[in-house]
């Protein structure tokens, strides 16, 4: 693993899992995404991981026109822009790639395998829903396979790679690391890799510290000095796993896409609140946070003007 003094904090602002009823602080409109993104950068985030929402209903959307309403202002902040290609489990591959193809970002996320991706838990509790789509959307996650076939992965690497976009390789299980190694052996990915280990999603590897240790050890065997580790866990496990990632010498990701809470029983009022917490932990560990330009240098990104 490549080691560096600085630690990159990525912030995933809104995602496609949580729905507006679950937190009034989840950014939905373009202006809310802009405001929370700028605040997160000021708090110490070097990378902004971006999804889009329909501002009327809060439903995830793949519309490039919607991304156009907030990406330019966030890009002007100097932050590294990371556009999702995961989108939502309800979207086709073509829809999921629409915004990244249109915007040609410095970074794009890329899921490294098909999987069950279940987030139905909140729908089993009694609550008043703000929008009629929310409950069925959450429950429906239990009956859908999130498709990321080898052919889809290869097409994504080729289509976006031609524009110089690099990737945040999202690995939800150990097998996804071997899939990434396969594409590396074929010369379809460029080093250094940014390997994002994601734990605690129902259908992926569980949020057990031993599992992250195992993924780290496996990545060491597969990628040696050709990768940077980053890791996080969904929901209540967020803080423990960003701490473990930092202790391993890796980078971290926080944000309301992954966890709506700041601590047990207390909703985070903004993405920046989670970024500030991560920065405090890193400071206590003697790990200074990376600036956007330092992140660009480490990851060998093409730069915001490209």
CATH class: Alpha Beta
Residue-averaged pLDDT, rounded? 97
Shape: globular
Enumerate how many helices there are, as a single number: 11
Query: What is the CATH homology-level superfamily?
Result: Aldolase class I
Tell me what the CATH architecture is: Alpha-Beta Barrel
CATH fold type: TIM Barrel
Helical content band: 25-40%
**Spatial sequence of strands, sheet with the most strands:** 1-2-5-6-9-10-11-12
Poorly predicted runs are none
Beginning-to-end CA distance, first to last residue: 28 Å
Strand pairing plus helix content: what structural class? Answer: alpha/beta
Largest sheet: 8 strands, parallel, barrel
Return the domain count: 1
DSSP E strands, number? 14
The ordered H/E elements are EHEEEHHEHEEHEHEHEHEHEEEHH
β-sheet strand percentage: 15-25%
Whole-number radius of gyration? 18 Å
Keywords: Metal-binding, Transferase, Zinc
Pfam families: BKACE
Organism: Actinomadura yumaensis
Protein name: 3-keto-5-aminohexanoate cleavage protein
List keywords for this structure.
alpha/beta; 37% helix; transferase; 306 residues; globular; Aldolase_TIM; TIM Barrel
């Amino acid at each position: 693993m490549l080691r560096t003094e600085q630690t990159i904090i990525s912030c995933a602002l809104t995602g496609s899992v949580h729905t507006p009823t679950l937190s009034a602080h989840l950014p939905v409109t373009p202006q809310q995404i802009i405001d929370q993104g700028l605040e997160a950068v000021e708090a110490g985030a070097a990378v902004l991981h971006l999804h889009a929402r329909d501002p009327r209903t809060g439903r995830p959307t793949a519309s490039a026109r919607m991304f156009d309403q907030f990406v330019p202002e966030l890009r002007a902040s100097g932050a590294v822009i990371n556009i999702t290609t995961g989108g939502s489990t309800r979207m086709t591959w073509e829809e999921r790639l629409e915004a990244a193809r249109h915007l040609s970002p410095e970074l794009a996320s890329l899921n490294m395998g098909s999987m069950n991706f279940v987030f139905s838990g909140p729908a089993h509790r009694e609550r008043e829903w703000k929008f009629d789509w929310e409950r069925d959307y959450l429950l429906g996650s239990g009956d859908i396979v999130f498709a990321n076939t080898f052919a889809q992965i290869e097409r994504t690497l080729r289509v976006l790679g031609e524009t110089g976009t690099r990737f945040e390789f999202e690995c939800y299980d150990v097998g996804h690391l071997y899939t990434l190694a396969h594409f590396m052996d074929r010369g379809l990915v460029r080093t250094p890799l940014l390997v994002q280990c994601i734990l605690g999603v129902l259908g992926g590897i569980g949020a057990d510290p031993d599992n992250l240790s195992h993924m780290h050890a496996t990545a060491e065997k597969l990628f040696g000095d050709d990768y940077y580790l980053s890791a996080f866990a969904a929901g209540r496990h967020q803080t423990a796993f960003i701490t473990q990632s930092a202790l391993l010498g890796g980078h971290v990701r926080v944000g309301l896409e992954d966890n709506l809470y700041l601590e047990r029983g207390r909703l985070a009022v903004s993405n920046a609140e989670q970024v500030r917490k991560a920065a405090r932990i890193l400071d206590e560990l003697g790990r200074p946070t990376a600036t956007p330009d330092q992140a660009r240098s480490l990851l060998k990104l093409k730069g915001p003007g490209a």
